[in-house]
Structure formats: C-alpha cells, structure tokens
C-alpha cells in the first residue's frame, strides 16, 4: 500500500500547492477518489463565508468507519491498528489489529443500538485513555450518532453545560481513570453532572479502576454486561449506516473569547479527507510505521492524529494512558524504545517540562527508531526546539511544527517532514489547499514589512478559502459561529492568532490576539475563568490575563477585587481555586491571584486588559496610553501589589 497523494519533494509541494489554489475543487476531488464511497457526490464545493455555508462533497454517501476499518480488513486485517500502553508500566500493553478493532466497534455499535441510540443522536463520551474510548467513538460513527468527547479533566459543571448544549441523552464513561499516581473517579463526576441533567437516558460504564460507583437503576448499565448480551444474541457485524458527506461526525467543545465554550461541529467527508491528507503528508507516514501522538483523545489533536488520521490511512497508532513524568521522566522514551516508535508528536509544554529533568532520564534510551518528530498546540520556543532536535531526534529527525486549531480539523501550516524546509519556531508553509492572509485591524491585507518586527510582515492570521476540514457551525447556534470566525473580517475566516511572515513566505505564529489563553497547550477563555471566579461569594469583580510561564507557555494571572467583609483573604484565595476547579476543572486554576482594590477601566466601564497583561508580564514602566482611564491611580496600586 502507498499513498498516491503523498508529496515526496519540494518541487512537488510547490506544484501541488499551485494546483490546489488554481482549482481547489479538482484538487480535493482527486484526493477524495482514493476513499471508499457508497455514492458519488453531486458537487465538490459550495460555499460562502457570509452565512457561512460550507459544503464539501454534498450528496456523497459514505461511512467513515468503512474508510478506517472495513477497507483494510482484507489487505491487512492482522496488522496493528491501535497499540495501547497502560499508565502502569507493569501492566501488559494491548494490541488491536484492524480485525480486532473492527469486531469491537461492531459489537459496541450493537450495544449502543440496544440502548436506544439512533442516527443523529448525540453521545457524550467521558473516558480515560483506554482502547474502549476509540471503540466507543468509532461505534458512534458507525451507527451515525454524533460523538462529543469531553476531556477527563473537566468538572461536573462543565460536563452538564455541554450535555445541555448538545442535548445529549447518552453517555459513555468509565468507573475511573488512571493518570500517574492519581485515580480519577469519572463516574462520580458524571453522577454530579447528572443531578441537573434529568434528560440523560442511559449511562454506559466501562470498568477500568474498579473504584466503587453508584449505578442508578434504569439509567446506568455496565459496558461488560452489555457486551455479553450482544455475544449471547450472536450479534457480530454491524452494517455501517449510510451517511451524507455533510452529516455531522462530532461536536468538540472549545474555548473562545466569550464565556461559554462553543461546540465546534465537523462533518464526515471533509474531516476524513483532511485529517488523512495532512497525516500522510505532514508526517510523511509510511505504511507499517508506528505513530505516537501523546495528546489526549479528549482534544482535537487526539481525534485527528491518534484516531481518524492514522486509521483512515491504515496506519498503526499508539495511545498512552499515563503521563510523561510517571513513574519517572523517562516514560516517553521507554515507550519509544519498547514499541520502536517512528513518529513522535507532542506539545512544546511536554518538551519544556521534560527538558527540566536534564539528560539523566535519557540515559540508556536508544531512540534509534525515531524518524520524525512533531509539535503542536502552542508556539515552540527555540530553546525547546533545539533540545528536542538534539536530545530526542539526535539531529537526524526532521521536526514538524504544526499550526492548526480545533476549528480546522487538521494541520494548516507546517513543514512537511524532510520534504519542505524547517525553521526553528516557525510553522513555515501552508499545506496545499490552504490560503492564509495577514490582515490589519481593519481587515486590509498586510503587504508592508513592519519595522517593529525586523522587516517581517505582521498581522492577524486569516484564511480566505475553505478547505475540507473547516468548521461548519457551532452546535445549536450558527450565528455564534458567524460572529466568532466570519464576522470580524467579512469574507475571511479569522483564526484569533497573530503571525509573522518572512521573505520566503514562512509563517511564525506569535499567539492569540483575542482573549483566549493557551495554558500547557490547552485553550482557556479569560471570560470563562472570570465567570468561574465571580461565582465565589467573596468576589466582587475579576480580570484574568495570561503571562509567560516557563513550562506552561502561558500561566493564568487573576486580578480580583474581593469583599473585605468576607473574611481572611488567604481562605478566599483557596476557596476561589476550589470554585474554579468545580466550575471548569483544575486546568483553569489561576497560577497567581492578586487582590486589588480596583481594576483599570475606561470611562465606558471597559477593563483595560492591555495594562493588566503588561503588569502581569512584569512590565511596569511602559504601559502605553493610560489617559482614557477613569482612575489612573488604580494602576499604581496594582503595580505595587504585583506578585
Ligand atoms: C495555538 C490545537 C503556535 C494557536 C491543535 C491556535 C499553535 C490554538 C500551534 C488552537 C503551533 C496550535 N504554533 N501556536 N504549532 N498549534 N497553536 O484548538 O494559538 O486546542 O489558535 O488546537 O493553539 O488550539 P486548539
């Protein structure tokens, strides 16, 4: 097996890029021809960015699981599709061949159907990183249900919000999840979430940690019992539901600049094509190789590059249940050696954290199987890039710095490993089919180099033409999708990121230009954290900004006006942290809390975050224009109290 659309030289990249821009429909139709369809599409592309309305391959009929599983059964049913490494290195790993995975997905699709799940229903999946998670996801896709995976670190409140938003009546979860030395009681979090969500009809609970759980009669069932029923009935193959190219495949919630996370919706064919195409080209995957993406499947990176990208390409994907630092900081390297991993895809925050342990954890590690390295999720600083290159890749593995977003399905800007040039800290060139532009505040295309940025073009990063994996809508609220991505600069998709562009056309992503933080590669909205902080009875008002953090990339800095009558500020501080953990999850806990008497506001009452950001970054002299402030005195007070 090979991939006819895999780019193998720089010249070919240039030619393909030109072709993709000159005739996008013909370009993507050519790629679509390599997948398995029940019926040909009516029209390749129909789009406008005003509504927005984006349809790729509308009328085409297919099922994504036939593309990920069935079509590989004959040619390589015995090859590993998924390799699973448990949290505890003493526990045995598991290998699921394409045949095994197919059987299990069919079985669980029967379970879902027996429990009342129908095509189009939303199924919330809240599980740890065990093989049953991909099985549950693919079973939804086989049956035509829309999966909505929620990362295991989110709180009961966050789950409840998502269940309500998606009107999800079905949940698949685990009793608990292992992460390092911790045992996270997932089912009990679900139980808390469901106190307010009486519309949930069924919770299917998979056993992992054997933590005690309360199974509610009539609502909760055990995964294992349900599988036994299917076996007793002799149910095996599950005919894949015939789906339209533009039917939703999944909803994944992500943070934006407003308070509530948005349910990003991706549709079947476009998502499949784009994750497959980018997987094959960015990582230069070769059949038989082992691809290890260290993300959690609860995030888009896991959806696209643990599951759908590798599986639709007939590849072998390794999933890891644990964390990089347990039992020690050599765990990733042990896994690489144990399975002879060829491609390692991780986040800069993980690299920086492992860098902090020095070279000792690398002693006696071979790492000779590695061929390609990748990073994702946040800008990678040069120091981390060079460490990765020198100590992990031993200067012989190309590093791909892949820029993309939950909304884009897959990688938009990145070098192609070993094919197009790399440049430390630069995502470099757009993939074929991707047409970036840099614009100024007014939406005018930037054509003049900026002196401030060393003669580079600098602006807000937008895309002017759709690719198959672009977001279709935000679930239940299309207007929100328009406002968040298509209204700022009419005619363009706005990414929320700022970028620089050099003379070679290389892009460097400089970070978010909106009120979204990127903490350890996870997106968190400042408004979301503020809302959570403000829930606490002792808080009058708050303002949250990001500040540079050595390991996390960005840390969360909260300025809080607290009610002095509420008692000891130290207690209030702890209570605020507990509140944020309860409302969002531990990932959103502020790293620093500064109690202040007032916040810098304009006369119209708007908080001037620019000033707060500068103070949090340690800048105290050059705060820019403060003349529009209602009370410039608060700035002095905040500066004095800086942590
Ligand atoms: C940031 C993760 C710089 C960016 C796939 C984007 C990056 C946000 C990179 C999306 C990169 C992602 N270099 N910044 N290589 N990759 N980002 O939705 O700010 O969790 O907008 O998707 O992460 O985060 P999300």
Strand order of the largest sheet: 5-4-17-16-18-19-20
* CATH level-two architecture of the domain at 516-640: 2-Layer Sandwich
Strand fraction band?
A: 15-25%
Might you state the CATH topology name of the domain at 516-640?
GMP Synthetase, Chain A, domain 3
- In whole angstroms, the N-to-C terminal distance is 58 Å
Helix content: 25-40%
- CATH superfamily annotation of the domain at 516-640: ANL, C-terminal domain
CATH C-level name of the domain at 516-640: Alpha Beta
Strand tally: 30
Whole-number mean pLDDT: 96
Number of helices: 18
If you compute it from the alpha carbons, what radius of gyration comes out, rounded to the nearest whole angstrom?
Answer: 24 Å
Bound molecules: 5'-O-[(S)-ethoxy(hydroxy)phosphoryl]adenosine
Task: Describe this protein's structure.
- The chain has 643 residues and is an alpha/beta fold.
- The chain has a domain at 516-640: GMP Synthetase, Chain A, domain 3, CATH 3.30.300.
- 31% of the residues lie in helices and 23% in strands.
- The protein has a seven-stranded mixed beta sheet, sandwiched between helices. The protein has a five-stranded parallel beta sheet with strand order 7-6-8-11-12, with helices on both faces. The chain has a four-stranded antiparallel beta sheet with strand order 21-22-24-25.
- Helix 12 (348-355) links the parallel strand 18 and strand 19 (372-376).
- Helix 4 crosses helix 5, helix 4 crosses helix 8 (223-232) and helix 9 packs across helix 10 (300-312).
- The longest helix is centred in the first third of the chain and has 17 residues, at 98-114.
- It is globular, with a radius of gyration of 24 Å.
- It binds 5'-O-[(S)-ethoxy(hydroxy)phosphoryl]adenosine (WTA).
């Amino acid at each position: 097996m090979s991939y006819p659309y895999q780019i193998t030289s720089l010249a070919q990249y240039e030619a393909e890029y030109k072709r993709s821009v000159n005739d996008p429909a013909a370009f993507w139709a050519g790629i679509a021809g390599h997948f398995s369809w029940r019926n040909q599409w009516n029209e390749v592309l129909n789009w406008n960015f005003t509504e927005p309305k984006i349809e790729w391959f509308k009328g085409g009929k297919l099922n994504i699981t036939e593309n990920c599983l069935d079509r590989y059964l004959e040619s390589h049913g015995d090859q590993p599709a998924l390799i699973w490494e448990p949290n505890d290195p003493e526990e045995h790993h598991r290998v699921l061949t394409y045949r095994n995975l197919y059987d299990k997905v069919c079985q669980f699709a029967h379970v879902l159907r027996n429990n009342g799940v129908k095509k189009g229903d939303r199924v919330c999946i809240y599980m740890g990183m065990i093989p049953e998670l991909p099985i549950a996801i693919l079973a939804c896709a086989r049956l035509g249900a829309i999966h909505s995976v929620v990362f295991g670190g989110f709180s009961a409140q966050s789950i409840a919000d998502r269940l309500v938003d998606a009107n999800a009546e079905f949940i698949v979860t685990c009793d608990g999840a292992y992460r390092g030395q911790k045992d996270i009681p997932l089912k009990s979090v679900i139980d808390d979430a469901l106190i307010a969500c009486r519309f949930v009809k069924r919770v299917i609970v998979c056993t992992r940690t054997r933590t005690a759980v309360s199974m509610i009669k009539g609502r909760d069932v055990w995964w294992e019992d349900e599988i036994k029923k299917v076996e007793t009935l002799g149910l095996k193959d599950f005919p894949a539901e015939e789906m339209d190219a533009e039917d939703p495949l999944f909803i994944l919630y992500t943070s934006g600049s407003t308070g509530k996370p948005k349910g990003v919706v991706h549709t079947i064919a476009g998502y499949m094509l784009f994750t497959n195409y980018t997987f094959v080209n960015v990582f230069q995957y070769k059949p038989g190789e082992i691809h290890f993406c260290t993300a959690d499947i609860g995030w888009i990176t896991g959806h696209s590059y643990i599951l759908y990208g590798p599986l639709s390409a007939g590849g072998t994907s390794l999933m890891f249940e644990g964390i990089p630092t347990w039992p020690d900081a050599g765990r990733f390297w042990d896994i690489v050696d144990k399975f002879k991993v060829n491609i390692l895809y991780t986040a800069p925050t993980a690299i920086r954290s492992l860098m902090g342990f020095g070279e000792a954890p690398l002693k006696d590690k071979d790492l000779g199987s590695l061929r390609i390295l990748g990073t994702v999720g946040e800008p990678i600083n040069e120091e981390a890039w060079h460490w990765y290159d020198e100590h992990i890749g031993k200067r012989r593995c190309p590093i791909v710095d892949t820029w993309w977003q939950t909304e884009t399905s897959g990688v938009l800007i990145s070098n192609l490993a070993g094919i197009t040039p790399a440049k430390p800290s630069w995502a470099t060139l757009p993939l074929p089919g991707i047409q970036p532009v840099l614009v100024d505040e007014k939406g005018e295309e930037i054509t003049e180099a900026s002196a401030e940025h060393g003669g580079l073009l600098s602006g807000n990063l937008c895309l002017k033409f759709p690719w198959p994996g672009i977001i279709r809508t935000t679930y239940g609220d299309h207007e929100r999708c328009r406002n968040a991505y298509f209204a700022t600069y009419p005619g363009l998709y706005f990414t929320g990121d700022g970028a620089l562009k050099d003379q070679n056309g290389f892009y460097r992503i400089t970070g978010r230009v909106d009120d979204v933080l990127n903490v350890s590669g996870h997106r968190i909205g400042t408004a979301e954290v503020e809302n959570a902080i403000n829930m606490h009875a002792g808080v009058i008002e708050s303002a949250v900004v990001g500040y540079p953090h050595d390991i996390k990339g960005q840390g969360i800095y909260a300025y809080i006006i607290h009610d002095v009558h509420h008692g000891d500020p130290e207690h209030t501080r702890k209570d605020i942290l507990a509140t944020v953990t309860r409302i969002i999850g531990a990932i959103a806990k502020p790293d620093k809390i500064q109690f202040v008497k007032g916040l810098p506001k304009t006369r119209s009452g708007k908080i001037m975050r620019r000033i707060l950001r500068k103070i949090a970054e340690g800048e105290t002299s050059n705060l820019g224009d403060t003349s529009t402030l209602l009370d410039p005195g608060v700035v002095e007070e905040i500066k004095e109290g800086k942590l």
